[in-house]
Amino acid sequence: FPVDPEKEDEGKNIDLVETYLQNFYNLEKDHRPHLRKGGKNHLAEKLKEMQEFFGLQVTGKPDHDTLEMMNKPRCGVPDVEQYV
Amino acid sequence: FTTGNPKWKKNNLTYRIVNYTRKMRQTDVDAAIQKALNVWSSVTPLTFQKTKDKIADIMISFEYRDHKDNSPFDGPDGQLAHAFQPGEGLGGDVHLDDEEAWTKDGRGYNLFIVVAHELGHSLGLSHSNDPGALMYPNYAYTDPKEFRLPQDDIDGIQAIYGQSNDAVQPTGPTTPQACDPNLTFDAITTLRGEMMFFKGRYMLRKHPERSETELNFISLFWPNLPSGIQAAYENIERDEILLFKGNEDKYWVVRGYDIAYGYPKPIYRLGFPKTVKRVNAAYSDETTGKTYFFVADRYWRYDENKKSMDHGYPRKIIQDFGKIGRVDAVFQKDGYVYFFHGTTQFQFDPRAKRIVNQMKSISWFNC
Lengths: 84, 367
Prior knowledge:
Chain A is mainly alpha-helical. Chain A has helices at residues 5-24, 42-53, 64-70, and one strand spanning 74-75. By secondary structure, chain B is of the alpha+beta class. In chain B, strand 24 and strand 25 form a beta hairpin. In chain B, helix 1 (26-41) crosses helix 2 (111-123). At the A-B interface, strand 1 of A face strand 4 and helix 2 of B. Strand 1 of chain A pairs parallel with strand 4 (79-83) of chain B, so a sheet runs across the interface.
């Protein structure tokens, strides 16, 4: 069956968010939390950190403005934690 | 600052361009890097000397994907470059993603802007959350010819290395904040129901249905007009805006995101005498088809239908607009004309020909 385009976009967005937070907010790679998972959500905390830095609405959710910001070309040095 | 406050222990640093990209001529790469180094040396006591073969403090190279520093590049777009904090070995080095479309102008990614940012890291700066700062993590194009290091970056680097040795200390532009009571504007216009407030290389964009104000670089919309818009007005009938840049005695017609073909044109084409070098403010009255241009303490009236200046102008602004003498910016909305002078705004009723209200200039931003 063809993939539902909306579902496909959602999957891409989750990948983008995880990769971005791993690269720039020290989200652990083996953590693999999922956005819809309840309880303590490390990814949501990192997302809030990112949103706060960029002056976005701090929701802990990958809303439109957050995804737009993550899609912008940028410097590869992380915003938090020591690089080396 | 970078965690641990790393800094170079000496002021005379060396740099080496390890290799070149094929996207640009070598002389253009050299020039971009030299200019980027000057950005920092002009505001601190730091000096940079080029070396050709030796290991230098700052090694600048173009790299591809995994380049053995545990931070692989990701191909076109995304991550453009990275740099290491001051220190031995990799410390201070700048890596540029060789898969990016590097340029010396506004197409693709401007090498000078990116290298200048990365050198900030090489010297010990971390990312800034000031969206106008050079050290803001996201790429934003500024015409290299008009580039001035923002004050946020000057403050940061001088806190590490001290002030410049020059007698006159450099200063830089600050990022406008919508709720700053001291904020003044260069120009204001409506655009398809929104309001655009121009300030330096920024544009504050306010939609009447949205509570927040968006801050953008002018270059995001119009790369050829990156800063210094001194007057702007919307011609609703033709769905276009006219933009006037300071001291260039030229104007641009913008339709949507595109600059109309054949522009800029000299402002004399609108009927101004050659003695007029800049327009301070302008608005167009959609009901009468008349456009008002404000220059120093006088104003001209232009007929959009006849495409010529009306006779009997210029007139003194103060003669016809109440106590308003000089104008920084003006726009018309819902039948009223809003004049801005410094931090003060006057609401003028053109039917009654009098000022009906006086407010702070930032009154539109829900502060």
